[in-house]
Amino acid sequence: MAKGRRTLRSVDYFRKVPRDLTEGSLSGGGISLIATAVMLLLVFGEVTDYMSKKTVTDVYADTTNDGKLRINFDVYFHEVSCEHLSVDVLDVIGNLKSNVTASVKKLAKKTTNEFVQRDGSVGGTGKTRTSWLSRGFFSGATLKEESQEERRALQAVEPHYHGDHVLKSGEESDFVKEWENLHPDLVEWYKGMGVFKNLIDHDKELIKSAMALTLSWEQDNYDDDPDQKKTVYKGGKQASFDVTSMEEIKDLADEYNILLVDFHAPWCSHCQKFSPTWEKLAYYFNTALHAMEEVYTGKTGDWTKAPAAIDLQTPGKKMENLPKGKVLVANVNCVQYPKVCKEHKIMGYPAIRIYKNHAAHHHSTHETHINMLTEYTAYSGGRSISEMVKFGLTSISEFYPKRKDFVSLLISEEGDMPHKDEDAHPSVVSNVPVLKPMEASTRSMSERHTMEGCRITGYADSSRVPGVVRFSVTDEKGATDFDPNVLNMTHEVKSFWFGAHKLEPHMDEYLLKYNQGSPFERSLKLVDDYKQLHVAQKRKLSYQHYIKTVATSMLWQGSTQSFTAYEMSVNTNQFTDPPDRTTFPSAMPSVVFHYDLSPLQILIREEKETFFRFMVNLCAIVGGVFTVASMIDGVIHRLSDVGHKMQIGKAG
Fold first, then answer.
1. Cα(35)–Cα(31) distance, rounded to whole angstroms?
2. Does the pLDDT of residue 364 top 80, yes or no?
3. 607: which residues sit within 8 A by CB, 6+ positions away?
4. Contact indicator for 298, 304 with CB cutoff of 8 Å
């Protein structure tokens, strides 16, 4: 046993000197305190480092197997409405997605993010206007004024017409039959009138005969008739109201429940082609319906020839000649009256807009003006006379959904016949809507928009190759000419990024760690989500954003699945397209994002120090500090000893 102990002592690395044979020194005590403090500080740092995570960055060739790339965007255009704004995506291998809509939302307002809604039902009231008949447009006998009770009672029975030229009850006019034989399109028009089958016979006769009168007006020659005004287009007859100022269009919006306006330009080829159809529509609502109503009610017998359109063009007379009722068809020449079109932010021609006033009245308080200048309904249906007339009639039915005589109400005022359901005869009031919901809806032919800009948000999937995302104005039907001089492409990029998932704010910290520059420099030059405001300082200005993006994957500790984001650098250029109208729409101002993918990929891995390495580092700290402190103490002690010998003269 004793021998074993002696053997163990012989291999002792730490042989002890008896304490009585050692002594402390002031320098050794100071160095020991400093060494202890340094040791504790280093140990604390090592423990903290051991408890935290580290990121390691690797760069290698992009090996992404997914052949698709998702492009996410949220862009707000300050001066362009959603009516014609579209998104196109094209890549270098030829894949084109034009006017992306399935994954895109258009928001009408920046502040509320209200989604663009289609037209809903509206209601309105009217005020008596002087009938155009009293101004001599037709001559004939006039019935005596009936009382409110008499007018209510007349709604319950078939009208008893009188006079040689007045249409008889239950009979089709020879005038209408003749036009049926000569015009197959009139027969087609009748076929489309099935939606109005539940109206009273009087209203059905009005709808059909007014169309026949309109076609007659189209064919007749009025060259020698000074009452028939002409359009700015060669040989065209005019029936629409000429709007010449903002005050006029505001007043008309107060007067009528539905105001249909065609904003056009004489140089526009589509306007030239569309003008005859628009004037027929104007004649139908502004003149023909009123004319046939006078015939059917026996107030005139002069129905054998289509009269000239009401004079709604001559200054000083047109406001006096306004037809009574709920609907007016008007036009604005944007070349002659550019201020009107500019205030309504007209970008292309012809622009067909419908202003639906919920409370039209004569004594205006201008309550409708604000809505008119911030909100409108764009007509997007077919541009034939039959489709547009059907749209106008259906729009009126929204005001009187349960009335079987809403066509009569369209061309009358409260003083002419009862407009409220409770005042009307029960025979003309239905318990359910007269038109079926799908038939009465005008949403398929119109869309509501605002003039407060358009915010487009959504995404588009493309091939994982370089390409472009283009925001521009377009008309998918090809029936609109756009003017680059009025397009302002000021836009705010609220967000533009790539990939299926967006980085959370805390993930940006990991991206900052591997960057060689400062975080501030990096935030300006390299981002994962691009945001910027671009204000157009001149007309016809287009923007080209050039984006270089690199796939960056992050692998969290304890996970086998990596998270991939796309970092990018963005450079922006501005240029002006040539003002050449023959190149529409290629010369239109636009906002384009060009993106290119880097062939390299960055991988950021999270790592944590192992316990074994942690213990090794602790030992290194303790041993290293102790060794260094011993060396320093030895040097100081040796120097002190040499100094002492020099003092007593024993140095040497």
1. 6
2. no
3. 53, 54, 55, 56, 557
4. no
Specify whether the CB–CB gap between 360 and 125 falls below 8 A. Answer: yes
CA 71, CA 545: separation in Å to the nearest integer? 14
**Please, which residues have CB within 8 angstroms of residue 120's CB and are 6 or more apart in sequence?**
none
CB-CB contact of 551 with 564 (8 Å): yes
**Collapsing DSSP states into helix, strand and coil, what is residue 569?**
strand
Q: Is the pLDDT of residue 587 over 90?
A: no
Question: Is the pLDDT confidence value at 143 over 60?
Answer: no
For residues 346, 348, 350, 353, the Cα torsion angle rounded to the nearest 10 degrees is: -40
> What string of DSSP letters covers 134-192?
GGTTS----PPPPPHHHHHHHTTS-----STTSPPTT---HHHHHHHHH-HHHHHHHHG
Higher-confidence residue of 474 and 149: namely 474
> Under a CB-based contact definition with an 8 Å cutoff, are residues 293 and 303 in contact?
no
Strand partners, 542: 575
What the block records as the tokens of 596 is 């290119």
Burial group, residue 642, by CB count within 10 angstroms (0-12, 13-18, 19+): exposed
d(CA 396, CA 258): 8
- Token representation of residue 471: 């925001």
Q: Count the helices and strands in the chain (H runs, E runs).
A: 17, 20
* Contact criterion met (CB below 8 Å) for 553 and 564: yes
Per-residue pLDDT for 66 more than 80?
no
Provide the 3-class DSSP secondary structure of residue 253: helix
- Please, are residues 120 and 126 in contact by the beta-carbon 8 Å criterion? no
* Cβ atoms of 503 and 565 closer than 8 Å: yes
**Closest Cα to residue 623, out of 46, 47, 39, 45?**
39
527 has pLDDT over 70:
no
* Highest mean predicted confidence (pLDDT) among 222-226, 508-512, 513-517: 222-226
What is the pLDDT, as a whole number, of residue 469? 93
Higher pLDDT among residues 245 and 580, named by residue = 245
Contacts of 54 (CB under 8 A, 6+ apart): 606, 607, 608, 609
Task: Give me 183's structure tokens.
Answer: 């015009």
Q: Kindly tell me the sign of the dihedral angle through the C-alpha atoms of 460, 462, 468, 470.
A: negative
Dihedral sign from CA coordinates of 53, 54, 55, 56? negative
The tokens for 365 are 């308080």
Please name which of 380, 394, 500 lies closest in space to residue 446, comparing C-alpha atoms: 380
Element (H, E) at 460: strand 454-463
pLDDT digits (tens, 9 = 90+) for 246-302: 989 888 988 888 899 999 999 999 999 999 999 999 999 999 998 888 877 766 655
376 neighbors 351 (Cβ within 8 angstroms): no
**pLDDT digit string, tens, across residues 181-214:** 766 666 666 666 667 778 888 888 888 888 888 8
Single-letter residue type at 198: N
Distance CA 311, CA 135 (A): 11
Record the pTM. 0.69
* pLDDT value at residue 85: 86
- pLDDT, residue 185, reads 65
